[in-house]
Every structure is written in C-alpha cells, then in structure tokens.
Amino acid sequence: CPDKVILLPVISAGCPMADMITAHSLIQKKREHPGVPVVSYVNSSASVKAESDICCTSANAIQVVSSLVGYDTVLMTPDKNLARYTQRFTDKKIVYWEGFCPYHDRLTAAQVKSVKDDHPQALFLAHPECRPEVIDLADEVKSTSGMLEYVKKTESREFIIGTETGIIHTLETQNPDKVFVPADKKMICTDMKKIYLDDIVKALVTSSPVVKVEEGIRVRAYRAVERMLKIPRD
Ligand code: SF4
What we know:
The chain is of the alpha/beta class.
C-alpha cells in the first residue's frame, strides 16, 4: 500500500527471529540451492520477503509448501521449527534457515511434561514455532488464530498454552468459563511489550515514526505476500 502512511510507535519494537536473517545472507543461501523456491515466514523483513518466492504464516505454511507443485525441494526461512513442523506433512525436502523464535524455542519437553503432570485433564496446545520434541507432546498444534478458534469450539475446559503468554489474556476474555495455564511463564516476548498506549497516542499526534520501504523492495516483497494470500488457510 504505497499510498498509505505506516506508523511504528516504537521503532525498536521488532522481532528477534526476523533479525536472524538478512537479504544478503538469503541471497548467498539461494546460490547454494539454485532453482529452489524460497518460502519466508511473514515474521521477516521486507528485504527478505523481496528475495522470497512466497510468504507463509504459521496457519498456512503446509498449504503454501504444497502449492509449490513441480518442486521436490523448498527453502524455508527464517524459522527452523516451523520448517521442521511443515516437513511432517510433505514429501518435499525442506531445507531451512537456522533461525528460531527465542521465546517459543526456550520451551522444553521436560517443562511441558511437568505442567502436564500438574494438570492431567488439560489439553496441551503448541505453536508450530516450538521445538519438535515439544510438538510431539501436543494434543493440538495451532497458530495463534487457530488456538483462539479451537478453544472456543472445543468442550474441554482446561488448556496448557505453548505460545507467547500474551494470548492468555485474549483466551480468558473470550472464554471466561475455561482455565489457561502457560506452559512456561517466561514465554514473554519483550519486543511485543514495547509499545504502550501513550506511544500510540504520540505516534498519532506526531504522525511519526514513519516506516519507509524502498520501492524496489516493496514491489518484490508485496509479490511474495500476494502469492501467499491466494492460498487458503487451515
Ligand atoms: S514472539 Fe517475539 S520473537 Fe517470537 S516470533 Fe513473535 S515477535 Fe518474533
């Protein structure tokens, strides 16, 4: 949307996982895998998206990879855990970037087993950004939006939540009769907590800081996002 003004109230509010790859390093990786399509998670910079063939979210990664008909190998960036989760559902070989979300990747199988022991009736919901051994313990693997939808429609009343703990406030608000336990109380993304209401007011009053993307990057990044938007979600 080149005609729209995009404000980011606190310019340092980023994503440590997105910072684990640059366009330059992706170009080098692509040289190692000529002709292999690149699927980049939306948690990536515009310049990384511009070097990608298509984007994906945690809700549609499997469908996006399946849509790449005629390719036996796919390169996924930047999240190795989402790539390894997607690998479970495809015969294509997924080569992946060694990035990860520091908050999802910190959750261990031992922690999950311990919380499950304390809450034997609870269903464990894991996000695909979690490690494979954590995914193996999940009753359901869901994106953030997938968790919100699933909890509403299931009859279970207690859940262990394996994702950034901020979702628990929304889950409790939408489901006051259900109980939510964080798999790890320290799954708190400090970047996601950087913006306060005051910062938003200030950004709206001053119309700054403005996010600017170079036109050449914008056009190519948008193409990767647009291709993704044509793929149905789960
Ligand atoms: S929780 Fe934070 S670090 Fe992890 S993917 Fe989200 S924004 Fe990035």
